[in-house]
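Suppose you are handed a protein chain with no further information: no name, no annotation, nothing but its sequence. What can you learn? This example shows the usual starting point.
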Amino acid sequence: APLGFLLTLEPIKPRHTNSQRGYYWRSINAWGKSLGYSAGETERTLHTLVLCEAYGTEKQVQLTDGQIINFPKKRSSKANRDEYSELIDVLCRVASEQGYYIEPPRRIA
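A reasonable first move is to predict its three-dimensional structure. Written in structure tokens, the prediction is:
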């Protein structure tokens, strides 16, 4: 290449685990069910709420009816183990702030 090369070295962080994903989705779906939400409604509302709380909001769009839709900066599918653990912690906190208790995950060393 005429201008050279840019090489970036970053440590490889393992992706989140199936256990983390299973715990998160069981918990958020149970919370959604307690609110009378379908699985789709839970994903569109509660999951997006938790993502935005954990990772921040990238943008907001206001619909013609005045409803505001938030878009998270990061999706859970792109989260590594540490980021997914943070997502789970935020889920437990936000649900409890809304009056729904989620049993915290057991940490395995």
